[in-house]
Design the sequence.
């Protein structure tokens, strides 16, 4: 019989130890040490059984009194207690909760200690005999420690382990404690024998604890399991809060039952204590509910804050993406490559042969495709070109679309041979046929290349050099690439033309305004809109350098339309701001005027801007008389009927059209500055200016003199009845902000 019990206990211990060690090996969290010490406890119990069996079956006597098995069995509770201490240390609480937790444990242990002392320890000490040693007293003492750990598991309530694991551990350890207490009690009574109820209970305890290890899931800790705490069932909370008071109630009941002569005072005291306990339990439950509600609100607030923060971050990322990427192709834009180039220059190693290359690529015949098939086909073609370019780029290579049909490519830390191979590869890839919505398109690129620092030290300089090289490719038949060379600058007019074409797309032009003064009233009655080109690479480019090229290349047409539209917009702005009636003069080139649809273009601009034609003066030159006189007079008459003022600019310097002057429906003659600059220096020149004024008065024209710079010139013009003047004596051409200040000051001066 004893052999069977011993073998069964050994097998049970080995099985339980194996299961727990398997859990220990898999665990990576803080609970790893917990399972280790539980396993050591079972191993200690197993060794105690083995040693006891050795004494009992081999030596035949002394097994019950042997100290080694008892020490090993006591060690089981020691290891259990250490394991539970580790779990208690994992529980993170604030100071008040920690104090309450310790008080709960002390209350339960006080009650349990009282019963254990009364029923077990005191009788053990008093009934000491040869079969009992003081080491047996350690059983109930250590059981109290294990009980404290069990209480901590109850209070933690699933915050350390899953519900199943927690229940199994609590139940298994309680069975262990009960078995130990029964063993001690039977020992006190002197009736303990091998095979009594304690052995099955110990084995049952081992199996339940090992089952807990099987159901164990990876340790997640207190902080990560707040949602479990928040959603604990009310029954679990009630048990947790009432646990320390249940022991007090039981102890009170036992005390009353032991009193031989119970009095109403004792019974009343008991019920008073009971009511206080109940009130305390419900107060704690209400506190937990309030804490749970607060946690729910905090969590909801955290979620909302996180959602809004995520949306804000997403919006910022989108804005940043749009700021540095092209809308049509999705490629980086001009701002991005300019920033990337600055970084590349900063990080460049000046020692060695590696270079930074800037490639400017333009699609040949793209304008014809866009005009004939429409912008939708053009956009699809631009996307496909961007896709092909992206496919042949490496990590240190960047492709961007910088506007229109132009792409820029940045190559970092490359040799000249690699630059040329890359250009050849791009040509090869882009020459292939494009299938755009079922239409086969043939497009070739022209590529200009500039190198840092040989050809420039910033983005604009490299762009200009690459632009010059690219147009050299177009000039020589397109569909190829060229590296910029200094000899290309021997044709400055071509380079200027190329830059002029880009300036329109890049919005490099601005309008300056030069005030015009009435000599009769002394008031500012108008301004002349003058175009200015401020190039990032060339700086301020005088009109004398680019107007003639614009006329030769036909660029004067879009340029002239832009000037008229901007002047009309500004006229409307001034009128809305309450500026007294102000005439805005705009120069019209003869090439513009000769367009068959010129009047229609002007009418569309007026309709689009909402400007009042009566506030706009169109300045034409004598060269318009070189065209069809009938057509010229017809156009001028149409413009007059629309309400425009017409002025003849630079009168006396161009084609002699005196025979047609009385036929032109003009309002004002403008004396060229070349005559005004010679006033008071030459009698013949003075006579010419006086004659022009007299003739204009005879034809009922107003007269304005430009280029007036001195008081003497103004005095002379007043004496010959010139109507208006314009020049540095009044003001130089002003940018818009300065012109606004000038007009406001002039308005205030007139009202005083």
Sequence:
């Amino acid at each position: 019989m004893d052999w069977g019990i011993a073998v069964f206990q050994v097998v049970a211990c080995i099985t339980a130890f194996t299961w727990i060690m398997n859990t220990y090996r898999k665990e990576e969290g803080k609970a790893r040490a917990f399972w280790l010490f539980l396993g050591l406890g079972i191993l200690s119990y197993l060794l105690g059984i083995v040693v006891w069996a050795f004494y009992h079956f081999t030596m035949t006597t002394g097994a019950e009194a042997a100290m080694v098995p008892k020490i090993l069995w006591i060690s089981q509770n020691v290891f259990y207690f250490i394991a539970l201490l580790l779990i208690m240390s994992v529980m993170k609480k604030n100071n008040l909760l920690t104090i309450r937790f310790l008080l709960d444990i002390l209350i339960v242990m006080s009650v349990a200690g009282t019963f254990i002392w009364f029923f077990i320890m005191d009788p053990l000490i008093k009934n000491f005999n040869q079969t009992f040693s003081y080491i047996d007293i350690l059983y109930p003492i250590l059981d109290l420690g294990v009980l404290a750990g069990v209480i901590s598991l109850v209070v933690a309530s699933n915050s350390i382990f899953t519900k199943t694991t927690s229940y199994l551990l609590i139940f298994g350890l309680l069975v262990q404690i009960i078995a130990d207490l029964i063993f001690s009690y039977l020992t006190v009574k002197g009736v303990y024998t091998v095979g009594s109820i304690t052995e099955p209970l110990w084995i049952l305890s081992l199996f339940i604890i090992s089952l807990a290890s099987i159901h164990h899931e990876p340790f997640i800790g207190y902080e990560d399991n707040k949602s479990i705490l928040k959603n604990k069932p009310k029954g679990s909370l009630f048990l947790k809060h009432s646990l320390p008071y249940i022991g007090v109630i039981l102890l009170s009941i036992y005390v009353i039952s032991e009193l031989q002569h119970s009095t109403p005072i004792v019974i009343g005291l008991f019920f008073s204590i009971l009511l206080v306990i109940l009130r305390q339990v419900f107060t704690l439950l209400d506190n937990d509910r309030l804490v749970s509600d607060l946690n729910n609100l905090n969590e909801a607030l955290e979620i909302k804050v996180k959602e809004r923060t995520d949306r804000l971050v997403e919006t910022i990322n989108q804005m940043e993406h749009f700021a540095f990427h092209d809308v049509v192709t999705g490629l980086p834009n001009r701002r991005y490559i300019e920033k990337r180039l600055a970084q590349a220059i900063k990080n460049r190693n000046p020692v060695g042969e590696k270079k930074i290359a800037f490639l400017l690529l333009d699609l040949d015949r793209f304008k014809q495709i866009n005009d004939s098939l429409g912008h939708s086909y053009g956009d699809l073609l631009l996307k496909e070109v961007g896709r092909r370019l992206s496919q042949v780029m490496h990590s240190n290579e960047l492709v961007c679309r910088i506007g229109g049909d132009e792409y820029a490519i940045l190559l970092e830390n490359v040799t000249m041979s690699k630059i040329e191979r890359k250009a050849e590869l791009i040509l090869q890839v882009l020459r292939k046929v494009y299938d755009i919505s079922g239409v086969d398109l043939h497009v070739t690129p022209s590529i200009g290349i500039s190198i840092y620092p040989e050809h420039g030290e910033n983005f604009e300089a490299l762009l200009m050099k690459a632009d010059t090289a690219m147009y050299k490719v177009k000039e020589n038949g397109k569909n190829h690439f060229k590296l910029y060379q200094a000899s290309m600058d021997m044709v400055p007019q071509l380079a200027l033309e190329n830059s002029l074409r880009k300036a329109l797309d890049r919005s490099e032009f601005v309008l300056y305004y030069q005030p015009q003064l009435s000599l009769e009233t002394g008031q500012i009655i108008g301004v002349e809109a003058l175009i200015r080109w401020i190039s990032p690479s060339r700086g301020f480019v005088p009109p004398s350098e680019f107007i003639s090229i614009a006329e030769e290349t036909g660029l004067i047409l879009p340029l002239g339309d832009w000037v008229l539209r901007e002047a009309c917009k500004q006229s409307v702005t001034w009128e809305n701001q309450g500026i007294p009636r102000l005439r805005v003069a705009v120069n019209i080139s003869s090439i513009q005027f000769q367009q068959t649809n010129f009047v229609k273009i002007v009418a569309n601009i007026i309709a689009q801007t909402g400007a009042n034609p009566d506030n706009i003066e169109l300045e034409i030159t004598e060269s318009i008389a070189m065209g069809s006189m009938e057509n010229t007079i017809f156009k001028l008459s149409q413009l007059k009927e629309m309400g425009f003022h017409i002025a003849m600019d630079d009168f006396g310097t161009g084609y002699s059209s005196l025979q047609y002057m009385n036929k032109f429906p003009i309002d004002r003659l403008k004396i060229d500055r070349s005559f005004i600059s010679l006033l008071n220096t030459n009698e013949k020149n003075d006579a010419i200016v006086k004659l022009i004024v007299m003739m204009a008065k005879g034809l009922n024209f107003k007269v304005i003199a430009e280029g007036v710079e001195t008081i003497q010139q103004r005095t002379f013009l007043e004496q010959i009845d010139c109507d208006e003047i314009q020049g540095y004596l009044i003001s130089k051409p002003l940018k818009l902000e300065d012109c606004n200040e000038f007009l406001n000051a002039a308005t205030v001066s007139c009202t005083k």
User: Anything to note?
Assistant: The two ends are 129 Å apart (CA to CA). The CA atoms of residues 13 and 119 lie 30 Å apart. The longest strand covers residues 524-535.
